[in-house]
């Protein structure tokens, strides 16, 4: 089973996923990570009631716009924490849960901040810290975690965005001058990281490489 949670449904993308492997059931639920924790718990209850078990949670929601300070923090960090907190109700072994795996998508900005978008960079650093904490709690909760940190990847996210206080009006153009990687190459390395399933790992996915950051 593959369950996709997003604000907007993309039927073409879902159809493409279904065609890749007809044995996989792909379902979609409307979800905004900025909703209250109680709403997230309610949605997850619906999913768990149907599937009975979920093995892996991928937290991938993110925005890049340092004009939207509160929303950047809400989407990139608070929403991720809330979604993870909500799924613990079903996974935590202290409550009789089976455990699970959390893969949090962060960014290489945690190693070298894009200083013109300090809010975005800070939220990604916060996620890596939170993920490391989750990993260290695994003996207590039964839930393992690792972070995925892609380099500049050719997605709509980096086409145009605003810097904090407009310190660099051309930040997107400057970023585009750096070497990039395709979404396909990044995704292939993401799969390798998932297969490795290494608790506490900080993975760097940049320019077609997959490296474990010590």
TrEMBL record:
Q: Which GO terms describe its biological process?
A: alcohol metabolic process
InterPro entries, per database record: ADH_Drosophila-type, NAD(P)-bd_dom_sf, Sc_DH/Rdtase_CS, SDR_fam
A GO CC annotation given for this chain: cytoplasm
Question: What terms describe the molecular function in GO for this protein?
Answer: alcohol dehydrogenase (NAD+) activity
UniProtKB keywords: NAD, Oxidoreductase
According to its UniProt record, the EC number is: 1.1.1.1
Q: Does the keyword NAD apply?
A: yes
* Top class in the EC scheme: oxidoreductase
Q: Which reaction does it catalyse?
A: a primary alcohol + NAD(+) = an aldehyde + NADH + H(+); a secondary alcohol + NAD(+) = a ketone + NADH + H(+)
Q: Which family does it belong to?
A: Belongs to the short-chain dehydrogenases/reductases (SDR) family.
Q: How does it assemble?
A: Homodimer.
State the name under which the record lists this protein. Alcohol dehydrogenase
Species this chain originates from: Hirtodrosophila pictiventris (Fruit fly)
Upper classification of the source organism reads: Eukaryota, Metazoa, Ecdysozoa, Arthropoda, Hexapoda
Q: Gene name, please?
A: Adh
């Amino acid at each position: 089973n593959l369950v996709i949670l997003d604000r907007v449904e993309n039927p073409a993308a879902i159809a493409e996923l279904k065609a890749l492997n007809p044995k996989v059931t792909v379902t979609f639920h409307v979800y905004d990570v900025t909703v209250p924790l109680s709403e997230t718990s309610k949605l997850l209850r619906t999913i768990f009631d149907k599937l009975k078990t979920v093995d892996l949670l991928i937290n991938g929601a993110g925005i890049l716009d340092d004009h939207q300070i509160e929303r950047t923090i809400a989407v990139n960090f608070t929403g991720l924490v809330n979604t993870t907190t909500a799924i613990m109700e079903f996974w935590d072994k202290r409550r009789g849960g089976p455990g699970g795996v959390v893969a949090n998508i962060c960014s290489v900005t945690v190693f070298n901040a894009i200083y013109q978008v300090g809010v975005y960079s800070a939220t990604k650093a916060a996620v890596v810290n939170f993920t490391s904490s989750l990993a260290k709690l695994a003996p207590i909760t039964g839930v393992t975690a690792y972070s995925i940190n892609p380099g500049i990847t050719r997605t709509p996210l980096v086409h145009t965005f605003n810097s904090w206080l407009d310190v660099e009006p051309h930040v997107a153009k400057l970023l585009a001058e750096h070497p990039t990687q395709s979404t396909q190459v990044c995704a292939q390395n993401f799969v390798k990281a998932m297969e490795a399933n290494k608790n506490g790992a900080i993975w760097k996915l940049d320019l077609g490489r997959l490296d474990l950051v010590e």
